[in-house]
Amino acid sequence: MDQKSKRQSGIGKTLATLNMNCREASILLANAGELKLTRPERWGLWIHLLICGTCRQFRAQIRFLSQLMAAAPKEFMEIGFAQCTRLSTQRVTQIKDLLRQATEEE
Ligand SMILES: [Zn+2]
């Protein structure tokens, strides 16, 4: 591969990254704390967030969850959500009924 071809493939790759879809954007958003994004990925994500309200909403939800996790008591993080929350049987039944009603209405 000559220099010109290499450069074109690099530009092509960058353009593809800038033309990011929701799936790619959500993966980057979900892993933003762990991944170090490349410059094209940061630009692509920034451009995508400018035009996509759904992904902006997803980013806001991730930020909110991160804040909740940071504020959670230490024992909560150690034993997990399932052991910390105990719903009454009556409450479980109410939630199931509401979910069933919502499904039937669609
Ligand atoms: Zn999107």
Automatic annotation (TrEMBL):
It comes from the Bacteria. It comes from Bythopirellula polymerisocia. This is Zinc-finger domain-containing protein.
